[in-house]
Specification:
This protein has helices at about 1-30, 40-60, 70-80, 95-100, 130-140, 165-175, 195-205, 240-245, 265-275, 275-285; strands spanning about 35-40, 60-65, 85-90, 105-120, 130, 155-160, 190-195, 210-215, 225, 225-230, 250-260. The protein is α/β, with parallel strands linked by helices. It has two domains: about 35-115 and about 255-285, 3-Layer(aba) Sandwich (D-Maltodextrin-Binding Protein, domain 2), CATH 3.40.190.10; about 115-250, 3-Layer(aba) Sandwich (D-Maltodextrin-Binding Protein, domain 2), CATH 3.40.190. Strand 6 (about 155-160), helix 6 (about 165-175) and strand 7 (about 190-195) form a beta-alpha-beta unit. The radius of gyration is 26 Å and the shape is globular. The model is unreliable at about 1-30 (pLDDT under 50).
């Protein structure tokens, strides 16, 4: 009986020591890699994917997940604690800041690139230039026919991103409301709200009466961009890296990544790399505007 008890105790001891030996190895393998979840703006998603692919090639121990869904979706995920970095093509709103504060989260803003919003039409449309006021009047429904702005006698079909899109919010505030925070101007009720940049592009390709808007990096060569003047009598400018940087193009914005508090660890290293010349070269290649240093 004593011999059996001794053998049993020895067996338990060997199992315990074995578990103790393997646990550190498992911990080390987990800590050797880091996972960054990145979600939000559909404007930024292709750029974020390109950054993630390049960075993971440079740092094989880092895994980065990138998904779209809109700026509002990304910021909501950050507030809910389900992502580490939220992509946004607009600034976080006061309501979103209040929601974050209620959960003891302090969103920190990182400007990662710049973008121009191009106003786009079908190449069959003879209209080449518009003022900001004319674009505002078109989208609010005051101007209903292309003939009113020098085009043919055709009804205007308005295309927009959905309301959860940061690009939609920016266009509403900057173009329809002309930057006036007291303005209550809204999109015309017959504006077609589309869920993606691709939806706007596809509709413009087939509809010569349509007008849409999209980030410069998403405009294909087979569609026509409208030159824009900030005010009547001023020069009309097409969107480009040069006209965004010299501030002569009227519809340009910063692009953001938000973190819950100051970034640290792998997320900080990644964000530091994003503003490096190596990462900003990718910005230019994809048709966005690099941050000037």
């Amino acid at each position: 009986m004593k011999r059996t008890l001794l053998l049993f105790l020895l067996f338990i001891s060997l199992i315990s020591s074995g578990c103790g030996a393997t646990q550190p190895a498992q911990t080390a393998s987990v800590s050797a890699s880091a996972y960054i979840e990145n979600k939000g703006s559909d404007t930024i998603v292709n750029l974020a994917l390109a950054w993630a692919e390049k960075y993971q090639g440079l740092h094989p121990d880092i895994r980065i997940s990138v998904t779209g869904g809109g700026s509002g979706t990304g910021i909501a995920a950050l507030i809910n604690g389900t992502v580490g970095i939220a992509n946004a093509s607009r600034k976080i709103s006061s309501d979103e800041l209040k929601q974050a504060e209620a959960k003891n989260i302090r969103p920190v803003e990182h400007i990662v690139a710049r973008d121009a919003i191009a106003v786009i039409v079908n190449p069959e449309n003879p209209v080449n230039q518009l003022t900001l006021q004319q674009i505002s009047d078109i989208y609010s429904g005051k101007i209903k026919n292309w003939q009113e702005v020098g085009g043919e006698n055709r009804p205007i079909v308005r295309l927009s991103r959905e309301t959860n899109s940061g690009t939609h919010v920016y266009f509403l505030e900057t173009v329809l409301r002309l930057g006036d925070k007291k303005s209550k101007t809204l999109f015309s009720m017959d504006t077609l709200l589309l869920p993606s940049s691709e939806g706007i592009i596809n509709e413009l390709r087939t509809n010569p009466n349509a007008i849409g808007y999209d980030g410069l990096g998403y405009v294909p060569k087979d569609l026509k961009m409208i030159a824009i003047a900030q005010k009547p009598g001023e020069a009309y400018k097409l969107p480009s890296i040069a006209t965004v940087n010299d501030k002569s193009y009227a519809i340009a914005r910063d692009l953001y990544m938000y973190t819950a508090g100051e970034a640290s660890g792998a997320e900080k290293d990644y964000l530091d790399w994003i503003i490096s010349s190596e990462a900003q070269d990718i910005v230019a290649k994809l048709g966005f505007v690099p941050i000037l240093k």
